[in-house]
């Protein structure tokens, strides 16, 4: 079904329609019917109508598994797509030859959202191999596509989205990439994913470096063990003492003038340092790190992209302040705070952070996990990095606003006030929760009472209906018996009150006898009286018998 409207729906209305569509397609078991539309043709031909059909089907699938849908609805559809074989069919499109650019790019985006956050689908994607000899992993082929400057920009962005979704909540996949970078890994080859990402990180093309930095950043999200192990990665070099990955990144930031290079590196360092004191310690031991970032922060930028570089440099220093382990002599927390205040200024520092969140690239990137830049020059910030920036910005400002040299008693008073405020908030929330809990319990009791009353009324109604039917049946039986007795009495000439014709005939016979000169009236009455008495006695006997039968 094609849904179109000239009016722009509100987010709430759109969400409602998406839920309705999901229930219609999923509960109606229509997902399995999509599979024949995605099967590859016997002849390698792609007419325009087939291209349009496949593109429309892929858009329907993406609608069902979109990250903006309710999580339960998305997960159930992802599982149904895997069970019905649709995920496999779309992966076959990716490794097939001759697939046009438009449906191929849409298929890559669709695979990304089919595996996002779903471990079974992520494992399946990792196991898919090409048809060539020797077969290659589909992830490796996709990575080569992303790092090739000969491929279209939108297709490279689609492959980036695949890796972002593949690593989303995939602890095994994240650690696998990190493990392949470690020196102790014996099976490392030049064609492995980790090695290609590391080479791409220091590629001369800015977009390649940016792509690689973002993928490696996603491998470190919610991965504290991976962050610590990544500190042991050393790059291959002819020197006896090869640089570590961290040292090489810091050096590349300082020697490269292109902004997209620096933004990719700074996002990677921010993700690496967040909640990892060991990584912050290793960075602070590099003598040129903090001085260079201070210089970057103090630069007067005229271009929007340079504002992002300056703001991200400020953000990295803020992370080093917030997660400072106080183990590096010249850059302990108080020393670093004093250095920032003296060399940059608190207001300037905060303004630099605000420049990032006010930037159009930040606004665009924070709306959806899928990259939405129109060209390579606009691809600057990543969705997950924007989430990290928003989460840590307030923490950095609080760390900076703590006065250097503040004694323990003042810190204790400040913390005590904060604790009291938090306790008051907790008590208020507890009271509110208690009230709502009591209200819910009361409503549950009322619902149970209504349910019991309804059951009781239904039982009583059923009993009354049964009694009513029994009475109707008994009444019908008695009516039938009365009818039979009435007919019996009529046959014996006893039921005269209800037969006026018979009464008239009897009266006519009596009058005719008197006129014909029969017995005088008195004699007639005397002669008729014994007959009437006999008839009355006989009628009473029959009536008593009739009553007895009725009583029985």
TrEMBL record:
Biased composition (Basic and acidic residues): 540-552
Membrane among keywords: no
Protein name: General vesicular transport factor p115
Compositional bias ranges of the Low complexity kind: 522-531
Domain Vesicle tethering protein Uso1/P115-like head: 138-400
Domain of life according to the entry: Eukaryota
Keywords: Coiled coil, Golgi apparatus
InterPro entries: ARM-like, P115_Arm_rpt, Vesicle_P115, Vesicle_Uso1_P115_head
Organism: Melanaphis sacchari
Keyword Signal among UniProt keywords: no
Coiled coil: 412-446
GO cellular component: endoplasmic reticulum; ER to Golgi transport vesicle membrane; Golgi membrane; Golgi stack
UniProt subcellular location: Golgi apparatus
Stretches for region Disordered: 522-552
